[in-house]
Specification:
single chain, alpha+beta, seven-stranded mixed sheet, 26% helix, disordered N terminus
Length: 689
């Protein structure tokens, strides 16, 4: 085991990885044990005591949940191996804070998905797994809580195949004695790990009886990996002995390629299985050098950015945190170097700015550093106007990396300060919160002038309001929830003309645009220019596109329009009187006329509600969901509890948490996640967006 700070570890022995899972699967407890076993901390804290390293925000400690992704750095050397540097990010499990997972996965090289050995693959487990797959992040799995009654390792592995479409490679199996997991069988290195009551490990090579007992399990692992790896397949087909070195190399190749995911069991709370997991992180997950080059945009077209320290700088700001001593901008370097005093180009402001301070962050603590290079995750201190998704680049080679996309917010509250004197503090606090969290936005009600805040759900907005009270000292009143409705065209419009003609002598305004609006069945709007022969001059084509897009911001019912395919068919310009403004306005007129002609279908956000209820309360819970217009998707009996999944319109979920507590005497729990937009089941009585 190595100390926390090594003098110099080469980049091929760095591991930037995330801990992802459903809420309450044990991510934060596992992170705490990983830090303890690596010597980064000298005593472990517990989530229920509010004493963990990564849940450092007061709200996190009180609620016992992770709200913001926290980065920590540690070092680990496997037995007889070289020290490796680990940068761990513990992410939230609650769907309301999905942006934290999204931006973490955007910059990480690998991830460990934590599953509860009792609850198995839960809804948010599926969400984060597919998020990671979308970003091409190699994955491992840790089946936690194997000391709990009802834990079933093989059932979780089966669920990984059935629910996630995963290809799990079981590299270790649990040893259960009595009610507890006391050790594990390492199928790769052919040894047994044992853990005492304090979680201290001892390992020994298989004896002859153990070799006979576990021979079949190892053969299954070898066959599964050989099926996806040609080098191992040659050894396997030739019936040559396959040692730990060959199998580890094949597992690593397969994991990096996304062909499979190594799976290990353990109990983080009891310190069981942590050392084998650390060894596996080092063995199977990628270094920054193992990751493919990323796409960047330049004025001359797209280019590929390889993870090379000697290349021009390319870095992404993936998170902004406002701390007591000032803002921190977390940055992932994809290429080049960053030094204190360097001048870098910022895509967000399109200007050059100097690096004043750099730091490595361990949760809420920082340690100043003078430089960073490709593969590093560091924080820049003191930049007050920085935002998530900005690219930092070399001043002589200005590239833009793909930004970070946040899901659209689905729920809003009205906010007002209890004291008019706090209005300025409220504005400053909301601006800082919106800077930190791209899924949280602030607006104004056009009818009443009230402040509106938009978020991913009730818990998200509750946390933001509580942070306003604690961090900015603003006591606020909250108004009734408002639902983010959308519209989509009801039918195809055919060719519709939009014309602006104001020609009364002198310079006038003239533009004619003919277009069609058709439902495309998707979530995004599309735009296509089908004109030929220059009927709309090139200098006005961008104005037509912008005019069409602005018209879709508010449909005939007063809500944003989605799923519309706009096709420009014809147009006409005047040699003197045409302008960008005229074509912008003509396109607006045409789109609004088309939507008036076709009519629109009102869409509402439908939430996936996952309830864990005790047996006696199941009937009442189901009845309540159906009264709210819910459609039951799945029912699974798990010992004394039933897992219920239902799709329910968000507009019908007001006060659901209170109702659920009442129906179950406080024994049921629920998670609510955005699922999809669907046609409304009940027209809203007033404008709700």
């Amino acid at each position: 085991m190595s100390t926390t700070r090594e003098t110099r570890i080469p980049v091929d022995r760095w591991r930037n990885l995330g801990i992802i899972a459903h809420v309450d699967a044990g991510k934060t407890t596992l992170t705490e044990r990983l830090l303890y076993k690596t010597g980064t901390i000298h005593r472990t804290g517990e989530v229920h005591d509010g004493a963990t390293t990564t849940d450092h925000m007061e709200l996190e400690r009180e609620r016992g949940i992770t709200i913001g992704a926290a980065a920590v750095r540690a070092n680990w050397a496997p037995d007889g191996g070289q020290p490796h540097r680990l940068t761990l990010i513990d992410t939230p499990g609650h769907i309301d804070f999905a942006i934290e997972v999204e931006r973490s996965l955007r910059v990480l090289d690998g991830a460990v998905t934590v599953f509860s050995g009792v609850a198995g693959v839960q809804p948010q487990s599926e969400t984060v797994w597919h998020q990671a797959r979308r970003h091409g992040v190699p994955l491992m799995a840790f089946v936690n809580k194997m000391d709990r009654p009802g834990a079933d390792f093989d059932a979780v592995v089966t669920q990984m195949r059935d629910k996630l479409g995963a290809n799990p490679w079981v590299v270790a199996r649990p040893i259960i004695e009595g009610e507890h997991m006391t050790g594990l069988v390492d199928l790769v290195a052919e040894r047994i790990w044992r853990f005492d009551d304090a979680g201290n490990p001892a390992a020994h090579a298989w004896n002859e009886d153990e070799r006979v007992a576990y021979r079949e399990s190892r053969a299954e692992l070898v066959a599964a990996v050989a099926d996806r790896d040609e080098t191992l397949a040659e050894l396997w087909l030739a019936e040559r002995p396959i040692d730990a070195v060959a199998l580890t190399a094949a597992l690593r190749r397969g994991t990096l390629a996304g062909a499979g995911s190594p799976v290990l069991p353990g109990s983080a709370f009891r310190n069981v299985g942590i050392e084998p997991l650390l060894d596996a992180l080092v063995a199977y997950l990628p270094s920054p050098l193992d990751r493919p080059a990323v796409v960047a945009h330049t004025d001359d077209g797209d280019t590929m950015v390889a993870p090379e320290a000697d290349a021009p700088l390319a870095a992404l700001v993936f998170k902004v945190v406002n701390q007591a001593h000032g803002p921190l901008a977390f940055v992932r370097l994809y290429a080049g170097r960053l030094n204190v005093g360097d001048a870098v180009w910022r895509s967000g402001t399109d200007r050059v700015q100097r690096i004043g301070r750099l730091a490595v962050v361990r949760a809420e603590e920082t340690e100043a550093v003078e430089s960073a290079e490709a593969g590093d995750i560091v924080a820049i201190a003191g930049w007050k106007d920085v935002s998530t998704g900005e690219t930092l680049a070399d001043t002589h080679r200005r590239v833009r990396l793909e930004t970070i996309q946040a899901q659209p917010a689905v729920l809003s509250w009205r906010l007002s300060p209890e004291r008019s004197a706090d209005l300025l503090k409220l504005g400053n606090g909301l601006a800082r919160l919106a800077q930190e969290d791209p899924s949280f936005r602030v607006g104004t009600d056009p009818d009443t002038g009230e402040t509106l805040v938009w978020g991913m759900g009730e818990l998200h907005l509750e946390v933001m309001v509580e942070r306003l009270r604690r961090e900015w000292g603003v006591q606020v009143r909250t108004g009734s929830p408002r639902v983010a409705y959308q519209e989509t065209p009801a039918a195809a419009s055919g060719a519709i003309e939009g014309k602006l003609a104001k020609q009364t002598g002198g310079s006038g305004q003239f533009a004619r645009v003919v277009l069609s609006v058709t439902p495309n069945g998707g979530e995004a709007n599309t735009y296509e220019d089908r004109t030929t022969g220059g009927v709309i001059p090139k200098q006005f084509q961008a104005a037509v596109a912008k005019g069409a897009a602005s018209a879709l911001l508010e449909g005939p019912r007063g809500y944003p329009v989605v799923g519309a395919a706009v096709a420009v068919l014809d147009g006409q310009a005047h040699a003197v009187d045409s302008s960008e403004m005229a074509f912008h306005r003509a396109a607006q007129i045409a789109v609004k006329s088309a939507l008036d002609a076709t009519g629109t279908v009102l869409l509402e956000p439908v939430m996936r509600v996952c309830v864990s209820a005790p047996g006696p309360a199941v009937g009442d819970v189901l009845g309540d969901l159906q009264r709210r217009g819910g459609q039951i998707v799945n029912l699974v009996d798990r010992m004394e509890r039933t897992e219920i999944e239902a799709d329910v319109p968000l507009a019908q979920l007001d006060g659901y948490s209170t109702a659920l507590r009442s129906l179950s005497q406080g024994r049921a729990s629920a998670t609510v996640a955005f699922h999809a937009y669907r046609p409304v089941t009940q027209e809203p009585s007033r404008r709700s967006a």
